[in-house]
Automatic annotation (TrEMBL):
Residues 1-61 form the HTH tetR-type domain. It comes from Neobacillus novalis. It holds the Pfam family TetR_N. The keyword Repressor applies. InterPro entries: Homeodomain-like_sf, HTH-type_Tx_Regulator, HTH_TetR. One of its GO terms (molecular function) is DNA binding. Residues 24-43 bind DNA. Keywords: DNA-binding, Repressor. This is TetR/AcrR family transcriptional regulator. The lineage of its organism: Bacteria, Bacillati, Bacillota, Bacilli, Bacillales.
Length: 277
């Protein structure tokens, strides 16, 4: 196991029990069996470690939701797959989910708040895309209310996995929430959240990824991946970012080549957003 990965996994165990503030770098290094010097070779500070953990898990969740919304051809299956993926992720990563739920309501760390708002906005965009696809004009006035209801389901029901040690039927839960969502979509008639209100509460995307940052991530992935079609595709995409020459159809094809590689899902997602695909 890589040292950086070891630190993240062991630190998460402590954070889940004690929270961010109550866990020191000293405790983390002792739990990992490494020196402080070794810790600071991987992370400049505890805050950098926390942000790395958030990035690691939220990238997985965000890209999984994005792929489900984009790649599920059957509308009748889309909402079920969406809910199932959300709760399966929370169940699988229950330590991280526990920290996330607790710390979001307690933290005063500006970087952490901005980071969570960034991912929250990405997930909101996917939920809105799903709502518009499933219900169309039927929810034109109420789609933002419906989006917040879905987010409420996500947050509230996920606590069953995090704080209560009881077996849960993911299939039944997902089916139940599909029914509730459909009822809300088809019978809600009094909207509260308007486009104007959305504009007011919209937070500046200070954590948005720039082209330079995308290039840096692409460069890292090129170094990590052995010779393969994914590596060759990344090299071509890197060149396209530096000097655009390829038609959109070719760029889409290159993104398709990397989209299922475990090390490339996030960069594929970022590039799709960058090119508005």
């Amino acid at each position: 196991m890589l040292k950086k990965q070891l630190i993240m996994e062991r630190a998460l165990e402590l954070f889940a029990k004690q929270g961010f503030e109550s866990t020191s770098v000293q405790q983390i290094t002792e739990h990992c069996g490494i020196s402080k010097g070794a810790f600071y070779l991987s992370f400049k500070s505890k805050d950098e470690l926390i942000i790395a953990l958030i990035d690691h898990f939220m990238m997985q969740i965000t890209t999984e939701i994005d792929q489900i919304v984009r790649n599920t051809p059957n509308d009748e299956e889309l909402l079920y797959k969406f809910y199932y993926a959300i709760y399966h992720s929370f169940h699988k990563q229950s330590d991280f989910a526990k920290v996330l739920i607790k710390e979001q309501s307690q933290t005063f760390n500006k970087d952490l708040i901005l980071k969570m708002r960034y991912y929250d906005k990405l997930i909101e965009n996917n939920i809105l895309s799903m709502i518009e696809r499933l219900y169309g004009e039927e929810v034109r006035q109420t789609k933002y209310d419906l989006m917040y209801c879905i987010k409420g389901f996500m947050n509230t029901y996920s606590q069953l996995f995090v704080f209560y040690n009881v077996p849960l039927d993911l299939k039944l839960l997902s089916e139940s929430l599909v029914e509730k969502t459909n009822l809300l979509a088809r019978h809600t008639t009094v909207p509260f959240i308007s486009q104007e209100l959305i504009e007011i509460v919209k937070q500046p995307m200070n954590a948005e990824v720039t082209k330079e940052q995308i290039l840096e991530i692409v460069g890292q992935r090129i170094e990590e991946i052995e010779t393969s079609i994914e590596k060759e595709s990344l090299i071509l995409l890197q060149g396209q970012l530096l000097e655009p020459t390829l038609p959109p159809a070719i760029v889409k094809g290159l993104l398709g080549n990397i989209s299922n590689h475990p090390h490339c899902k996030w960069i594929s997602y970022l590039l799709r957003r960058y090119y508005n695909f």
